[in-house]
Design a protein that fits this description.
Layout: H1 2-14, H2 18-24, E1 30-31, E2 34-35, H3 64-70, H4 78-96, H5 101-107, H6 109-119, E3 123-126, H7 137-140, E4 152-156, E5 181-183, H8 192-202, E6 208-210, H9 218-224, E7 232-236, H10 242-254, E8 259-263
Parallel strand pairs: 4-5, 5-6, 6-7, 7-8
Antiparallel strand pairs: 1-2, 3-4
Helix pairs in contact: 5-6, 8-9, 9-10
InterPro entries: LRR_dom_sf (IPR032675)
Protein name: Distal membrane-arm assembly complex protein 2
Length: about 280
Amino acid sequence: MQYVFHKYVRNCSEEKSIYQRHEEGPRERTVHGQPYPDWRKPWIQRSGEWYSKLNIFVEKNPNADALYILQKVPDFNLQVAKEWWAEMKELQERQNQRYIPQRVDILGPNLAAMHYFTFRGAAVRLKNENNWISGNPMDLDLPVKFAEGYFIEAIDCSTFKKGGIRYEGIPNLGELNFLKWLSLQNNSHVDEWSLDKLAGQNGSTIEYLDIRGISFNVGCVYALARMPKLQVVLISDISDNLEIQAALSVLEMENPNLLIKVCSEEPPEQEDTRK
């Protein structure tokens, strides 16, 4: 692991600047021995396109979210300013939650997840441990490089900051091979896409899942069906949605070992869900 860390630092120090790469000129790129298709290149690199020296600052296609926000600038007023600021904060939060491979290379998947979730207000419990790890990351004294013996078994994201985890943050749960208990309570940004991603990553290990307060629909039921080890699911009251009720009934028939608990927004036993 120390070798991987030094290799990562060396690669970062040897990385050339945009200006240096521009002066050297583009290198011919091939895919399976064939020239890289012109239509897959950034528009500024396609043949026939005119560009100036300023193209040094435009190496990649513009971000679609950023372009959408900039389109609202001509109609700028107080309400648009508030919406723009909220969208910019949301865009920033999604970027901040994204999966960073270098962090996993240095810490390993379990320690990387501990740093990631405790820093954002969530709680983590290790395998064969009863105490939950949470609080100020500076006071937790977590290892800053890979160490043996850290295997995450449970994560409570009900106190996740900034409105909860987004789809971009779900990959940080990947490679947690001992994860059995997960609470996404009141993470309003979690939807069927997030649960489907979760099912593909952790569906073979998760046994307990709390998804009260998420954006729940029939698509979420399909995602739950992809978690064969699931034993207990907590969801919010869906008594007014017959379509979801029917889908849950089919899910219970397909998985007789699954217990689906429909809870109110503030169940009396809420404090006991971590046991």
